[in-house]
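Listing S7. Sequence submitted for prediction.
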Amino acid sequence: MTITPLNPSTAASPVVQEIAATAQRPQRVSGAYALMDALHRHGVEHIFGYPGGAILPIYDELHKAEARGWLKHILVRHEQGGTHAADAYARATGRVGVCFGTSGPGATNLVTGIATAQMDSVAMVVITGQVPRAAIGTDAFQETDIFGITLPIVKHSWVVRDPRHIGRIVAEAFLIASTGRPGPVLIDVPKDVGTEEFDYVPVEPGSSIPAGFHRPPAPRPEAISAALDLIRQSRRPLLYVGGGAISSGAHAAVAALAERFRLPVTTTLMGKGSFDEKHPLAVGMLGMHGTAYANFAVTECDLLIAAGARFDDRVTGRLDSFAPRAQVIHIDIDAAEVGKNRVPEVPVVADVKTALEALLAASDDEGSGGRTEAWLERINTWKHHYPLVVPAPEGEIAPQEVVVALRELAPDAFYTTDVGQHQMWAAQFLHNGPRRWISSAGLGTMGFGMPAAMGVQVAFPHECVICVAGDASILMNIQELGTLSQYGLPVKVVVINNGWQGMVRQWQESFYEERYSNSEMTGGMPNFQALAEAFGVQGITITDRADLKPLLRQALAHPGPCFVDVKVRRNENCYPMVPPGASNAQMVGLPSHPELAIDTIRQCGACGTATASAHLFCPSCGAKL
């Protein structure tokens, strides 16, 4: 069975016209019908879920909604897979993802996926079944307080006590999930709320505003002016772009600002795709496994323009040595993030796209005036001396070779990843467009990649979707091969198989004196090709370098799902690497060019005095260096 996308222009369809005509006419319906109608009104086309006792009234109505052509349900094999699929659906489309789960263990199985979405600011509506209202609090069969369990990891949540509130709650849920800093919300629906009938008056999207709700503010003109002043003064600026730029669709504004002022651009793991990584101004990802030139640039820059980034510890390394010579402009839609880890000279609390467009409008095509050319030349020197390295093609296949081969064979694909070494190699070597890089960053959720790829493939049935996974991560949600098989989703899963929990092994080698405690995965490792074929998915095993590209090409050409197990060298480490507690400039795994790494002498721009690079202020005139 294949997924047929629903018509995105349903706003003008006869069904929607009929809905609009009857929107204010009360109808006698059940709570479950009201829920499905509300989801339909909010443009939901796909729901990922798994049924169970408490949510059966909703699934019964879902069956009827599917028959009406309102939407399509995707049956996952585990509720966690449903959350990751809905999460990735949202990341790839920019719309709200929706998933269902029943009460008790069904609801608790959703928790990891909800936390993943919360950490990465993904708009998602999670709907759970609950025991009947009279049974709540009695320890009834499959009762859990999912409302209480998820309070720390959602933007908002509801327990529906009256079916008359369903329309309003759904409208508020979609508004809250998608407005401001996106995030997951939870709606818990007791079983008898789903069956109870009442006089239903639909609530249209955006028409119910919850108390205390505020839309994101516009950037303050004085903040935009102050930010432009710092950009004009800077000689060594760096534009540091995070996931907020993806959420706001700011990639065009990022490119325009970078090109106007000749700003080098580095991105976080979440920010990949916000700027063309093949552009001469791109310096790649920064942080623990970022490029050497990005980490050197952030250490030496005199102005750091953070756009939709939150100064995460995997980016900053030792915080007190992160961008130590830089003034900071911090643009973020969430005021709570501004100043949380680094106090900026200029805070701009606003949507990233809106703020960058305001900077462009205020700067009026003025350009850089050549101020950054020496800085860009220095960065290019670092690029020359410290490139990302693919090992020589000798012996066993290197993991980096697999990623580079995928980049060459499928440059425009959607890529999802699991978590570990393979994730970092993919982040280093893949060049992704906006919303085509989908990875669990904040929570680092193993098992994310394959269900995430399912969600992307459902959203874009005719696009190439590739999951890059590790042999340990893939086992976390391997059951979703059944979903790929049932719906004929043509996802290509490429496992970089080194027989380890790769990143755990690398840390044990580097910091735990090679005590490899419970990180080897060869014992009990399945024959992945046979396992995939048992699910009805084509399986391919690659062991020889000569077969790498031909068999990857064969997998990509296969019309259905395909699982590719690539055996790679076992002890390859992911470099560069910033050790825990070190500054970003103190990377390991680099060739030795100490004369290039950090300036030893700098000249004061105010008085011209030469001084050691460790100084933040000129010892002669006191000017900030």
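Caption to Listing S7: primary sequence and predicted structure tokens for the chain studied. Residues 485 and 536 are 6 Å apart (CA to CA). The longest helix spans residues 79-93.
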